[in-house]
Amino acid sequence: MFRLRHLKRNLPLTLGLLTLVAVLSIATFKAAERYFFERLAERAETSIALQRENLNGWLGRFRALPSVFARHPDLSRALRYPDDFELRDRVSLLLERWSFATGAQESFLVNLDGQVIASSDWSDRDTLLNRNVSGTPQHMEALQGRLGRQFDYGDADGQGERAYQFSFPVRIGTGVAGVIVVRADIDRLEEEMRLSPDEVFVTDRDGVVVLSGQPALRLTSLADDARFPVTPVANLSDGPLSAWELVTGPADRSDSAPREFMHVAVPIATEGWRLHLLAQTGTARTQAVLAMIGAVLVMLVLGLVVALILMRRRTLLQRLTAREREGRLLEQKVSARTAALKTANQRLEQEVRDRTAAEAELRRTQAEMVQVGKMAVLGQMSTALSHEFNQPLTAIRSYAENADAFIERDLPVKARENLSRIQRLTARMAQLSRSLANFARKPGEGLEDTSVAKVVEEALGLLEARLDRAGVTVELGGDFANAVARAGDIRLQHVLMNLIGNALDATEGQDGARIWLDVEQTAQSVILRVSDNGPGVPEQLRAQVFDPFYTTKDVGRGIGLGLSITFNIVTDFGGTIRVDDGPEGGAMFVVTLDRARPLADVAAQ
Ligand code: ADP
């Protein structure tokens, strides 16, 4: 499909090229033909020149003989004395010797009557002796005192020896007394013509072939087309060479198919003949055709090379265009992508700006919230503290006023009673103040190996009065005697007092209230558990109970610092504290501390 369209588009070009090739081929053929014909003509020229030399030499050799022979006195004498047979025999011998010496076929002497009176072939059976040759042209010519010439083609049936005869008058004084004839053998001459690669023949002034290597041609006439098969085709000769023409003629002796020849002819002036040469043009034509084929091949190769170059150029151009198109597409893509990136970048920048603003807002809000939180804590704290301090202060004031009144009324015992109440109240306030001071703890205070048994004993001693009042005995479990933790005596005691105090609060007024304290040692840790069977700490409040000022107790009973302080102390020890469900449903506070000497060390000793 594509090829057809392609061809259609290029049809005029293809036709033009084909025409050009055809024209160039014909022109090449014509030029080559001309060139090779000229070379052939040169060769024919050389060849015919050689043949002419040969023929002229042959003619020259025999033409002079009769005039030379005629001068011999024996010849004229034999003519003068025709009856002297001895003389005639001598002349015959003389002629035989001369003929042999000069290569003439025969020579003979004829009297005025035309009778042969002496002959070189006197010894032959069919000798010419005594024959009458009167009336033959050469006899007539010679009788008129000139050199006579005549062909003798033998008998009518083509038998007998063929010859060209030269005749010359033999004179006695100034008168012609007879004729001497020299026969030149034409067979040998024709044989040489036959051996020539070209067809060589001779015509006389009437256009009749008189000498030819081909017997069939002999005695045919050039003028007679029917008899002579050589017909002119065209006269192409216009060069510096002698005239030549193309003719068709017999191929060779065996083949009668007509062939083309180049015909050249030169005159043989002495005899009034023309020497002809027919050179075959086949080779020259073949060479011209080969040259044309060569030229066509060269043109085809050149055409192919040009076509290849053009195709390659077109492919390169197409590739270049494709690459340019790709480049443009790529550029478009890049610019589109760049624009998209720019937009995304702007969006991102906007987002960053928004985020920064939001972050600033958040930070401001957080700061505000912290502030609010601080204020809330401060509020809780001040409320709790004011209650905690106001109550004893109000009591102290009324006790002081009462003491003052009792002193005035002179009731010192009662006044002292009030004063000791004031002392207890101030002691309680001092205790509260210490708790607050403890809250502002100093973390990293030195740790020491602390005997858990000793600390438990002291804490229980201090709580003895409260425990007795509540009627609760703390149940101990575990190997207290060997439990030694990394802690501080007073602070760990504080922790235990807080936890047991809270358990007492939680189980206050409860029938069958129970509190357990047990210890467990692992390889690395000492674990203390304080459990009760009170209401426990609900799951959702378990994180909150360690916050400062978190309390569920009534005013004057707790300010929510106990667990917070406990948490801080345990954390300072490097331990942990958590609240869980107790074994009987109450709360269980679990304190985990580092073991004073890890088990591995103990084992190592
Ligand atoms: P306070 O004892 O002054 O209330 P704490 O910090 O010691 O402050 O305790 C905070 C709160 O944790 C208590 O008010 C109580 O609600 C709860 N709590 C502490 N121990 C127990 C316990 N053993 N059983 C139930 N609730 C407890």
From TrEMBL:
Annotated organism of origin: Pontivivens insulae
GO terms under cellular component: plasma membrane
Pfam families for the chain: HATPase_c, HisKA
UniProt topology in membrane: Multi-pass membrane protein
Designated name of the protein: C4-dicarboxylate transport sensor protein DctB
Summary of the function given for this chain in its UniProt record: Member of the two-component regulatory system DctB/DctD involved in the transport of C4-dicarboxylates. DctB functions as a membrane-associated protein kinase that phosphorylates DctD in response to environmental signals.
SMART domains: HATPase_c, HisKA
EC id: 2.7.13.3
Listed transmembrane segments: 288-310
Catalytic activity: ATP + protein L-histidine = ADP + protein N-phospho-L-histidine
Gene responsible for this protein: dctB_2
Keyword Coiled coil: yes
